[in-house]
Write a structure and sequence with these properties.
With 211 residues, the protein is an alpha+beta fold. It has helices at 3-17, 22-37, 58-67, 104-112, 119-129, 132-135, 182-186; strands spanning 49-53, 76-78, 85-90, 96-101, 136-140, 157-159, 166-168, 173-175, 178-180. The chain contains seven helices and nine strands. Helix 1 (3-17) crosses helix 3 (58-67) and helix 4 (104-112) crosses helix 5 (119-129).
Amino acid sequence: MEKDRLTRFLTEAVRAHGHLCPGLVLGTRMAVYGLDCIGIREPRARDTHYLIVEIDRCIAGALQVVTGCSLGHRTVKFLDYGKMAATFVNLETGAAARLLAREEARQKAKTYFPGVQSRHLRLVEAFKIMPDHELFQIRAVSVTIPDHDLPRKPLLSATCDMCGETIYDGREVYRSRSTLCRPCVEGGYYINLDTDSTLSCPGVERCHLAY
């Protein structure tokens, strides 16, 4: 890819992410290549493309910065597959491409900078200049995005019969004629510590938050 274009996007990614690392370079390269593959030359054009990210690592930060996609705009979806991969969808044409980072690229990086002892620096510099086909496996794919997942106002809402909380965008589950939220059916990531429905937290000693 063009050096000036890479430098511009990588600078923005570093500013947002906080540091330069191999994953950030890889994510920047993946974002630009993926958008090119689906015919998007202006990444910041609102609501023209959609991003599906399969891992929550540094690469994901670069993908969001470069593509301009975000959770708030409902143009990025995170699927916790644990794979260094992302799918890019052109919302206007339907064209979609899935890019997977090649594991062998890490070994090939040695041939680009054999004299660099630092693995971190070697990967950073090699990932900047390696050809796209050495960095990524690419496949044309078909992606169906439900209407209620597109970047627009909520089309659907429901109320959980068990906890009484509102559920948006078709995430409700139906069991024995009841409408339920997923945490009530599957178990949530949190445990209620208060016996009543109103959180009472006058001091930090009451806040049992785990990080």
